[in-house]
Amino acid sequence: MNTNISPTKGNLLALKKSLSLAQMGYELMDRKRNILVREMMRMIDKANKLRGEIDDTYATAYSALQLANITLGVCDSIAQSTPVEDGLAIAVRSVMGVELPAVSLATGGDAGICYDFSSSNASFDEAYICFHKVKLMLVDLAEIENSVYRLAVAIKKTQSRANALKNIIIPNMAETIASITEALEEKEREEFSRLKVIKRNKEREAKRM
Hints:
about 75% helix; two-stranded antiparallel sheet; Helix Hairpins
């Protein structure tokens, strides 16, 4: 309770308005937290599924590469002709005011076969395609994991603010309102009693006259 606030009707009305806004703020914070939690859980499920797909694709890729090395010999020369992918494009999308990254390859994700088919075989082609799929999935996974981290931070902040409103600010306001209301009612009773005394005195004086 704030004891520095004078018990006046003006302050009481202002506090009631502030309390209404605080309650509305808490409801919005709680709704935001729920939406962010749902979004984070959806992304966590997606990340877990994606990790499984990456493991499976890696296994297929290495198996195909091993077979290619056996049938073609060590494929270093072909591998060296493949350009290094070092470009990412990062945009931003917003979920309830939380900025989340949207990551993609700067090249657009085209597999872009860059070796001579006469120097490869089906196993090497399968390995190349699988590794390319893994690259795209890793980009998606990086986007999801970064988004999950940002959502977790935002959820923590939102929960902290909601708790402050629910457990501190709103109860303090309600207590102050109750105290001011009680003080005003006491003041009205005193004023009523004073007016009754004045009226009674006037009636006595009138009888004497």
